[in-house]
Amino acid sequence: MHSAIMMPRLLLVASSVALAVIGLVMIYSASSASALKEYGDSARYFKTQLGYLVVGVVIVYALARIDYHFWEGNVSWALWGVEIALLVATRLFGVSGTSGAQRWISLGPLGTLQPSEFAKIVVMLLFSSYLVRWQDGQIGFRRFLLLSSVAVLVPLCLVLLQPDLGTTVIILMTVLFVLYFGEVDTRAIVLLVVGIAVIGTLAVVVAPYRLKRVMTFLHPFDDPQGDGYQIVNSLYAFASGGVGGVGLGMSHQKYSYLPEAHTDFIFAIIGEELGLIGCLVVIFLFIVFVYAGIQIARHAPTHYGRVIAGSSAGTIGLQAFLNMACTVSLFPVTGKPLPFISAGGSSLLATLILVGLMLSVSYQSSSDVQADRRRRNMVVYDGGRPSRPDVDVPVRGRGGVRAGLGGWSRLEPVSDRDRRGVRATSVATRPGRQRRYLR
After folding, report:
1. Are residues 402 and 314 in the same domain?
2. 3-class secondary-structure state, position 384
3. Are residues 156 and 274 in the same domain?
4. Are the C-beta atoms of residues 283 and 62 closer than 8 Å to each other?
5. What would the mean pLDDT of 123-137 be, rounded to a whole number?
6. Residue 415 has pLDDT above 90, yes or no
7. Structural domain boundaries, residue 386
8. 181 contact partners, CB below 8 Å, separation of at least 6
9. Residue 370 placed within a domain
10. Predicted pLDDT at 61
11. What per-residue confidence (pLDDT) applies to 372?
């Protein structure tokens, strides 16, 4: 099998397994004292996480064997409907957490479910599908804008009402990743970034508790026994760990000093017990994971697969580094768990679903490598009329070459600067159709 396909897949699986194992070990270490006190079983959270991990592995295997095109269109809308129903049920009958936010649905003896964790997956699948269909000319811009707006804004508003600003930002960033890997014009991406910044600023200003959280982030030691208590104790954990750590299982902060030690702030326990070395290992594994996902996207057999794999890797990587930034006071606390590692069944299952989708893209890439297709279909553009009547080139607009935006037409003159060293390459989008880009 071609190494360009197999190596990213192996790196993805290896990094995922390593992170999940580290998560199990650290959950047991960070939660053993509190679990023994609350339930009389020091391995309570470890066993629960292990059960979710087993279910997640089965889901990964199933998704990896299903052609990712199956999730386009009606199937994605069905999943979207289920997600909306769960978010509405959370709003009406949900369970509140320690922060007072109503984000969970009680499942009785099975624990709780956090539907917002799956919203980013549904939004990614639907938005990616309609973006690619618009770029292929299957639907018009107005229809794309209407359907994609419904797909994104409805779950976004329901999540924001919980309230859950952290997940709202993650969903918006997922949309940003879809646009980026969909090769949308840079101006649209910049516009979305500005929109996210404006929404985030307004959400902080209109909610006093969020503004207080930002002020705590800026000055955590002004109130170390009040609002700054959690982040101050997180910093104490890192300071205690030093380079080599105090030893696995030897944390002091987990004994009721650091709230959420086995969930949102488990990275601080890693820093205390395993030190800087342990933290760097975790960061390195996430970098390997994201790199593998981007390589899978690069060699995806279709444009839709490229968007799915790239957006999945970007979303998980973003959430991981957002969590780690919060624990070291580089970003205001958002309450988002560390993928693979933090205790929480919903977070783990959502993460593994994205891994399964990425593996599905990788398995569908096995029969042909994108670089090989590009080499076979390379066409050099010298400024003259195309020798083949079926060769189309992108129209050049004010914002540059509109790669993948549905603006394909017959050859039109471009400047001499654009002719130098420019070549047209093709990426198969579905049997019998190709899209051409200027590289």
Report:
1. no
2. coil
3. yes
4. no
5. 92
6. no
7. 377-438
8. 297, 306, 307, 309, 310, 311, 314
9. no
10. 95
11. 53
Query: Is 439 in a helix, a strand, or coil?
Result: coil
Query: What is the domain count for the chain?
Result: 2
Q: Whose structure tokens read 């052609």?
A: 67
User: Does residue 33 sit in the same domain as residue 176?
Assistant: yes
Neighbours of 107 (CB within 10 A): 11
Supply 264's token pair: 């949102």
Instruction: Report the distance separating Cα 413 and Cα 257, nearest Å.
Output: 68
Q: At what angle do helices 303-327 and 116-135 cross, to 10 degrees?
A: 150
d(CA 351, CA 8): 18
What is the structure's pLDDT at 339?
95
Phi-psi region of 155 (alpha: psi -120 to 50; beta: other; left: phi over 0): alpha
Same domain, 95 and 232: yes
Q: In this structure, which amino acid lies at residue 190?
A: V
Name which of 115, 121, 137, 104 is nearest 68 in CA terms: 121
Q: Would you give the end-to-end CA distance of the chain in angstroms?
A: 27
310-314, Cβ contacts within 8 angstroms, sequence gap of 24 or more: 310/177, 310/180, 310/181, 311/124, 311/128, 311/174, 311/177, 311/178, 311/181, 312/124, 312/354, 312/355, 312/357, 312/358, 313/289, 313/358, 314/173, 314/174, 314/177, 314/180, 314/181, 314/290
Which residue is it, tokens 């996207």? Answer: 297
